[in-house]
Design goal:
By secondary structure, the protein is an all-alpha fold. The two termini are about 20 Å apart. It is built from 3 helices and no strands. Helix 1 packs antiparallel against helix 2 and helix 2 (about 15-40) packs antiparallel against helix 3 (about 45-70). The protein is elongated. The chain has one domain (about 1-70).
Length: about 70
């Protein structure tokens, strides 16, 4: 969320798109961290899957916004 806000404040679609890309990559990192957290027994399978799915959904939304910016 912070990367998206920072990119938006740059007042340039090109710069905003760059920060959206960073945000999307961060969502991938979160998914990866939940695999590690699950393996280390910090979270149970159901919670890890739920949070990975949420991060994947957010990543999809970011992709949609990136595609929308490309069409402007």
């Amino acid at each position: 969320m912070n990367n998206i806000a920072e990119g938006f404040e740059r007042k340039s679609n090109k710069k905003f798109s760059r920060f959206l890309d960073i945000s999307k990559a961060s969502a991938g990192e979160v998914r990866s961290m939940y695999y590690s957290a699950e393996d280390l027994k910090y979270v149970d399978l159901e919670r890890a899957q739920n949070r990975r799915n949420t991060a994947k959904h957010i990543s999809g939304g970011i992709s949609g916004l990136m595609n929308n910016l490309k069409s402007l």
